[in-house]
């Protein structure tokens, strides 16, 4: 089922389904919270009108720090008035969050009770924010989310929204330098949503979906949760991943469509009760962030025998690009088709993908080069960074920074990341950011951060460090300093003390050599 053609912007999604099926259950959570499509649309109108009364203007940025919740979806509905949403990664440290709030020039910040202490720190150090909104209990000096909704008018928002208008700014890293905010338009989000619904998620109006991936991620919100709402499905929101909880929810709520990452799928099938549960209602399991090992797929197919599996490749900047569909996964069960699990599939509709060399020349099939993407689902720009935008997008083609190749059947394979990004547990870690924190230690002469294969997290962040002569800083000292500055998943789990780092002829540190040296024997480096 395609997203209705009359939907032209994100606000239209809520208006359409409130009229088409007002009493249908739109959202639910494990705490008993529910919203029908009519209630969801009314709450969005109430909150939007109240913020307009408070002086918030179209184009203003509104940031939210929250786990998955009904309020999170209602906040994204504020785009009806032309407000630009800024989802904040709750795994970041306050210092990192403050940089993002300042860079986006957010004038409103919503904070869930769970992060109340962090919220107080942010409020003390972000003087540019006009309004602070507490989601949950009342807090002195803050607006209360529920009270704002109670005080707002249900009158429909009539503002005309263009497909080119900015919808949200998603930060792909909390860098120590200039933050990297990806501006996504209403048209771009809807373009990705439509192709995701039809070709990737194969959603139908009757689906009951489970959303446990964090909504601050483009994959969690725009490539699964939003398509579910745009299709008029019923969406169950979970605020954290617990394998036992997810298994029980799949059964109790009769979930038919779910988005997980391979590490989550592996955790599910390891649960003792998994083999005894009837999962015949689970129709499709979508995964991303990494490929699925063949043994894991075979186990998953035994536990979920009626379920199709789909994997996708995309990015915040490039939108959804390719899909390895359920039919390809069935081929991968056979010895002759197992290699397909190393692929991220074929390009979807309206997605052009090419592989180029350093001179921008298309390389032959089977040859490795940089992956470039052209589609109507590309980002609009990097927020407040035209220089970076021009360097990344030229002639309509986005330079992804990923290295890969096509096989003879048109399947795309990713073999490396040009920017040395580490993917650990579905999170992106940029080595230079971590290295910048390491170099704050006066005992460190040189440092290189890289990822090595990990059976649970896909990659683990580690570091090779050269100490200055006579210094005796310990691994624990280094790790504790990083943990004070950055999210825990960015902290090196192992510190290797070395006499020197491998370098090229021009003095560049060779991270690939370090990966080869320190990766577990028999593993291929990412």
Describe this structure in words.
- The chain is of the alpha/beta class.
- Helix content is 30%, strand content 26%.
- It has a nine-stranded mixed sheet. The protein has a five-stranded parallel sheet with strand order 4-3-5-6-7, sandwiched between helices.
- The longest helix is centred in the first third of the chain and has 17 residues, at 37-53.
Which properties best describe this structure?
alpha/beta
Measured distance between first and last alpha carbons: 37 Å
Average pLDDT level = 92
Low-pLDDT residue intervals, each spanning 5 or more residues: 522-526
Number of helices: 16
How much beta, percentage-wise?
Answer: 25-35%
Q: What spatial form do the alpha-carbon principal axes imply?
A: globular
The rounded Rg comes to 23 Å
Helix content: 25-40%
Neighbour order of strands in the largest sheet: 2-1-11-10-12-13-14-15-16
Derived structural class: alpha/beta
How many β strands by DSSP? Answer: 27
Largest pleated sheet: 9 strands, mixed
């Amino acid at each position: 089922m395609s997203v209705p053609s009359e939907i032209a912007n994100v606000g239209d999604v809520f208006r359409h389904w409130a009229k088409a099926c007002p009493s249908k259950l739109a959202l639910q959570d494990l705490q008993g919270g529910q919203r029908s499509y009519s209630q969801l649309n009314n709450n969005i109108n109430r909150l939007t009108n109240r913020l307009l009364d408070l002086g918030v203007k179209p184009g203003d940025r509104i940031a939210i720090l929250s786990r998955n919740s009904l309020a999170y979806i209602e906040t994204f509905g504020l785009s009806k008035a032309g407000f630009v949403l800024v989802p904040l990664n709750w795994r970041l440290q306050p210092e990192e969050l403050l940089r993002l709030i300042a860079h986006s020039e957010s004038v409103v910040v919503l904070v869930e009770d769970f992060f109340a202490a962090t919220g107080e720190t942010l409020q003390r150090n972000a003087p540019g924010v006009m309004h602070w909104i507490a989601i949950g209990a009342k807090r002195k000096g803050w607006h209360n989310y529920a009270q704002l909704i109670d005080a707002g008018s249900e009158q429909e928002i009539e503002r005309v929204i263009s497909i080119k208008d900015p919808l949200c700014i998603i930060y792909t890293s909390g860098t120590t330098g200039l933050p990297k905010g990806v501006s996504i338009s209403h048209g771009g989000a809807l373009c990705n949503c439509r192709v995701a619904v039809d070709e990737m998620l194969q959603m139908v109006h009757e689906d009951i979906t489970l959303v446990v991936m964090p909504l601050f991620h483009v994959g969690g919100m725009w490539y699964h949760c939003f398509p579910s709402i745009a299709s008029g499905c019923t969406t169950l929101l979970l605020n954290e991943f617990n394998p036992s909880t997810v298994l029980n929810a799949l059964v109790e709520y009769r979930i038919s469509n779910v988005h997980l990452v391979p590490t989550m799928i592996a955790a599910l099938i390891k649960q003792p009760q998994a083999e005894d549960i009837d999962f015949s209602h689970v129709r499709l399991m979508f995964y991303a962030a990494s490929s699925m090992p063949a043994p894991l797929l075979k186990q998953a197919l035994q536990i979920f025998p009626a379920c199709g599996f789909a994997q996708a490749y995309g990015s915040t900047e490039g939108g959804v690009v390719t899909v390895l569909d359920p039919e390809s996964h069935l081929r991968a069960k056979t010895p002759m088709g197992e290699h397909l699990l190393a692929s991220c599939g074929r390009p979807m509709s309206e997605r052009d993908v090419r592989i180029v060399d350093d001179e921008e020349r298309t390389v032959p099939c089977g040859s490795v080069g940089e992956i470039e993407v052209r589609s109507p689902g590309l980002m609009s720009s990097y927020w407040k960074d035209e220089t970076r935008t021009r360097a990344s997008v030229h002639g309509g083609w986005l330079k992804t920074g990923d290295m890969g190749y096509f096989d003879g059947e048109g399947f795309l394979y990713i073999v490396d990341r040009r920017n040395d990004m580490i993917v650990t547990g579905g999170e992106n870690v940029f080595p230079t950011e971590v290295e910048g924190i390491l170099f704050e230690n006066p005992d460190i002469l040189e440092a290189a951060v890289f990822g090595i294969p990990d059976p649970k997290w896909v990659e683990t962040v580690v570091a090779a460090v050269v100490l200055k002569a006579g210094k005796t800083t310990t691994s624990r000292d280094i790790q504790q300093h990083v943990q004070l500055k950055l999210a825990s998943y960015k902290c090196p789990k192992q510190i290797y003390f070395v006499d020197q780092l491998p370098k090229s002829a021009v003095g560049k540190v060779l991270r690939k050599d370090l990966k080869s040296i320190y990766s577990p024997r028999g593993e291929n480096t990412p």
